[in-house]
Amino acid sequence: MSRVKVFFNSSVNSKIVASLAGLGLVGFVIFHMLGNLQVFEGRDAINGYASILRDMPIFLWTARAGLLAAAGVHVGLTLRLALRNRRARSVAYAARRYRAASVASRTMALTGSLLLAFIIFHLLHLTVGVIDPSAPDGLDTQGRMDVYGKIVRAFSNPLYVGIYVVGQLILGLHLSHAVSSVFQTWGIEHAALDHLFKLVGSGVALLVVLGNLAIIFAVFLGLLRA
Amino acid sequence: MITLDPNVPAGPLEMKWDRRRFSGQLVSPTNKRRIKIIVVGTGLAGASAASTLGQLGYQVECFCFHDSPRRAHSIAAQGGINAAKNYQDDGDSVARLFYDTIKGGDFRSREANVYRLAQISTQIIDQCVALGVPFAREYGGQLANRSFGGVQVSRTFYCRGQTGQQLLLGAYSALCWQIERGQVTMRPRTEMLDVIVADGHARGIVVRDLVTGRLSVHTAHAVVLATGGYSNVYYLSTNASGCNVTATCRAWKQGAAFANPSFTQIHPTAIPPIGDHQAKLTLMSESLRNDGRIWVPVSPSDRRPPHAIPPSERDYFLERRYPRFGNLVPRDVASRAVKAICDEGCGVGPGGQGVYLDFSDVIRQQGIDIVRERYGNLFEMYERITGENAYEVPMRIYPAPHYTMGGLWVDYNLMSTIPGLFVIGEANFADHGANRLGASSLMQGLADGYFILPYTIGHYLATVNSPPITEDHGASRAALERVKARLKKLLQGKGRRRTAASFHRALGKILWDHCGMSRRAAGIRGALEAIPSLREEFWRDVIVPGSGEALNQELEYAGRVADFLEFAELMCHDALHREESCGAHFREEYQTEDGEPRRDDDRFAYVAAWEYREGETPVLHKEPLNFEFVQPTTRSYQ
Amino acid sequence: MKFTLKIWRQRGPNERGGFVTYSVDEVSPDMSFLEMLDALNQRLIATAEEPVAFEHDCREGICGSCSLVIDGVPHGPDRGVTTCQLYMRRFADEKTITIEPWRAKAFPIIKDLVVDRRALDRIMQAGGYISVNTGGAVDGNTLLIGKDEAETAMDAASCIGCGACVAACKNASAMLFVAAKVSHLATLPQGKPERTRRVMAMVQAMDREGFGSCGNQYECEAVCPKHVSVRFIAMLNREYLRSGILGTKMPARSDPPHGESY
Questions:
Q1: I want to staple A101 with a disulfide (CB 3.0 to 4.6 A). Which of A62, B396, C196, C217 is the partner?
Q2: Tell me: the pLDDT tens digits for B262-273?
Q3: Cβ of residue C185 closer than 8 Å to a chain B Cβ
Q4: Size of interface B-C (CB pairs under 8 A)
């Protein structure tokens, strides 16, 4: 067996690598949220931010490739672990009661899958733009791509607001267990700080979800207009 | 015909073991690979022996009836393990540990064995530390000690209240290593049902695979029994439910002498039995007696709750009878006093089986927090089992069978009267004489397994050179047939009426009443009449559902009860013949005016080794005990 | 007291199992859970029915034999105890109680409530030991071990190997069991020389046996009768990372003793 295969056959290694990839994705989600918050500074700011990104194709595509790879590794490894885990208990209990396991921790595979679906939807919707063809990429007065207009148009529609809000809740659930879990997986434990590690997970999840929801509801409630 | 040759090397006491090790012949490494040894049992003695023999290069086949070798009942020992390390510099030495053990055993053990045990004790600690046993440590990093069982020095090493567990896991890990190396073949869930003796030598065993029910013959150059004690003969004891006498009883029936079978230790501080449903007795640590005061109401008819009984109407009977030691008298003395007072009708709780162990005085004097800190976990355990809060109501305690000093007779080399059959740990009659001191059983099990047997078995293997017999050998086939016939007899018969447990309970009651803490000739004679008829009834009426071809726990159990029913008679013969009181063996006829045991060194300073005779009374053989180095004295705690 | 028991019955490893309902009455609140089952079995035996097979031995919470999932929780509703230490006064009268075996692919059922836990032994055989020969050990005080280290090692070493952690884990993972052993030996100086090889070998053995992976849900800790902490799982992960970085330089198998004679 090749060394790589041996390496990835180990459940602990798989978890460590999957968590590394996952952490990359978490970093992106935070970055993504912070960048998008510029929508509150007006059309000019966010459109300018988007055009700066687009003016650096090497950076943009490297980042995109990196994200794709991270997502691929994360999904691939966790999927394999999940399948193994399912096999590890072939007959289910007739009665089952959990004492410690949180809802978030028990539904990681489900929230992960839904999250993947949501991300694909989101990419097709706002990045590629095939979902809502009635809203072609417009240009702003300076000839830049009108990201601001796109956001406002999307979240004025209650259907999209609904989908995105649900998506955010799933993201929050997934992140809250994922981030606090990373400490354990990497062997970082401390009698006094363990409690803090747990809080970090919920904190990051809350931050990202609230930031993103702020944009959605600001548009939907009419605080941001076209 | 059995001859008892203790095989003790000549010379001064402290030189004997060295001389034996030097005079013993060695097996060459190449020959070791061709020699197979069977080890039965994986407690402290069995696991340490199997791992050490494997490490030496022998091919070892190891058997246990549990699902894993780690579950043997050594795991339940709480207190600690003695060793004459003298780390505390409080005057301990090999000689002192030797003397304490000999005296504690009431001068009924072999001097040379006990001295060797004390010598080896220090090595055991080193070995266990090397294996990763997490002994308690001082802040400076040195090994911690505590004093235990009323001795005057601190020589007990411990791992919280789980010393037995940690020592066993240490031995189990060593065994795991040898299994991984292929030196030991482990066969869990396999019960030994007979021993094969060919040409006068033990050459193998018959076992039953408990999962498939398959019987098979395993042959070897030598057989080691490490199958523990038989306190479960009393039905209720502190032993695990699986503990049994089957292996040693079968060996006895094949010609191994059984020594001092009536020497059984009764531990004073167990939680009392409360009803017929009870399956076992739970031990409370002896340390509780350091602070608790034991009492019963003066009047047997007093049915008031304990707090309503004024001090003037309480009988602190241990303090009254033993003013010098009070509640801290040794195990056997305390147990007897408790039983005596309960027999007078003063006992408390269900069935009058129990005395109060009261902490109200110490709580008043030192505060509840001190008591909680010292005994919190024990109080918690007590509450879980009884539903009573011992901070508010006194605990109730009652003695429980705990350890058996008796066992198969072995010589200095730990070999039984069947050449090639070695017996180690609690299964042999050992070094504890008529009474065992606290924290000595772990020491003995590991001394036998790690350090003594691996030497002495080598000498046997080097001097007796005959290849193992085959499975088709007449002796193998005969043993297999014996086992088959017996299982068939247990399983056959319809319309039977009683469960094995009901027979076991009945047997336990007979023994507890007549061959328990105190015995008298008339009672034992009564038991000797009752047991055979109970046994007859057992074979006629016992119900064993299911078949022998699958996991059948009731079949296993019934087989063990059948052996207890045979063995109990032997215990009674031994108890009847020993017309003296010594250690745990208390004959009511032989006591002083104030109720203290009277030992008779002129007539009974010997080991009673019993030979099995089919259909006859067992035959007594005596190994005289000569005390060259210590002078027997009277134990007095008044 | 009276109870209705729904008990998993399965005649053998390859047979189909199912729940059988029994009612037990005249149960004393002072009975332990296993004594209640004993009473049921006595009744079954008396009518020549096969009793319910379940594992038990010491009945004082240390041997790790008993292994029942009671109403969906391994070892039942009390915390920090084994099944044998559970008493009937803990249950409401006339309750229906569901009793199942440990369920994991690595623990195949042998009969009724008895499962085969040899997988745990095999993990131990892969490396859960210190390779030290009998005899010639240095004095126990030669290597000093601080009290805190000794206590940490003891916390980990108190695992009784019952497998409740596996039974409770959604993924049927044995991480807490493995972590307890690895942490115990890695904490002590005597265990350090082999720590790299040990953690690698034990994790590999664990994966090979078909246990799931750790989901950091800590259900194991919540049912552990000895309160073994999940912090040891973090310690195991750390040991594993460390071994991955340092690599293993030890031979996979030790030389046989008396090598010169071969």
A1: C217
A2: 999 999 999 998
A3: yes
A4: 231
